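Run: sequence + calcium ion -> complex structure.
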Amino acid sequence: MKRTPFVGDREYFPQIGRIQYEGPESDNPLAFKAYNPMELVGGKTMEEHLRFAVCYWHTFWGSGADPFGPGTRAFPWQVDGDAMTQARARIDAAFEFFTKLDVPFYCFHDRDLAPEGASVAESEKNLQTMVALAKERQQASGMRLLWGTANLFSHPRYMNGAATNPDLAVVALAGAQVKAALDATVELGGVNYVFWGGREGYSCLFNTDTRKELDHFARFLELARDYGRSIGFEGTFLIEPKPMEPMKHQYDFDAQTVIGFLRHHGLDGDFKLNIEANHATLAGHSFAHELQMCVDAGLLGSIDANRGNPQNGWDTDQFPLDMNDCVAAMAIVLASGGFQNGGLNFDAKLRRESTDLEDLFLAHIGGMDAFARGLVIAERMVKDPVLGRLRGDRYKSFESDLGQRFESGQLGLADLRNFAAGYGEPERQSGKQEQLENRMNDLMFA
Ligand code: XLS
Ligand code: CA
Ligand code: CA
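>> structure
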């Protein structure tokens, strides 16, 4: 779909025009080498497959501050004036950036878009004012909202959690915020609504009733679901797992934990998962593992595309450039039939040392090219007869009559014993890991 570039009263990136596809031979750092939005891959365009989104928080708020020092970047949209004046400048810069980069989607937290007010009512009003501006800019440009969410972790009141806070008054404030963020998401036609359990977890078991907190968490999600549906939200609710940071332990630890929780509470009809690459590695898994667990459960919703740093194990939220990760992720997404409501949101930030305004463009261009290349290679993998056959062949024995009866629950343990007694020692079957890994490299550079 063609989108129209948006420039507000002031142009924030005057040196940069719309980023174009120039192909692999180009040496222009401000051009796509692989991401060609209208190019067809297996019957769909790259734009339709990848559904890229830019996040509001890192991109327009990320100053480069870390626990050891303040920010290193001053952005031109940090204008003088009150918080609403600044919010108006920031939204113009954001839509200029989205449309110059030419991504179809964006994502935000309520507090990224509009400042908290002195009361619940004032916070609601601030958000409504900014949502009206976002709506105008969406209509003018053709941009869409991939997901909205509420920031339930920055304000000091949430230090002991939001939905799982031991104080009902804090839980109620979290409810007020989610209600307003759902209103905003619906008003802007958002296709998903995300819950990242920021401080839903604990630091100390001695002071925490984990059973109560998990029940409260499920109850809170039910209330949000019911309210969202009552105001016409037809999209997908998403839970974003993360094992730790900021809390020592977070309840949405990893994909399998969240899937079990959703099923236990009967929430799996409305909720799916938003998998972030860096959270997968923090949990001791690979990005691909987390995606596969979701696909197996029919619950893959969307992706936060980034990567961690293998040396330090923090949530460093770097831009995704590792081709093995991008290929493996896209192969799993493609094999599952592709994104429905989901997409690839760059929940990624510049390094503290990256202080030029154009670095924001360079970083996103790199991530988009990496996933475009990943998509093309993944398409080869999914269609590759060798890869498909080797995996399928390993399970061939279950196609037998006995195998079918085992899978459908018609065999007892004694039946297995009798089969084993008659069969003797099975012939060993190689797992063929090296052949498969070699094949992946062959396809990557084919
Ligand atoms: C933080 C999370 C957060 C969510 C949205 O680690 O990634 O940014 O994606 O609240
Ligand atoms: Ca995220
Ligand atoms: Ca993260």
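>> summary
The chain has a mean pLDDT of 97. Residues 109, 149, 194, 196, 240, 242, 276, 304, 315, 347 surround D-xylose (ligand 1) (CB under 6 Å).
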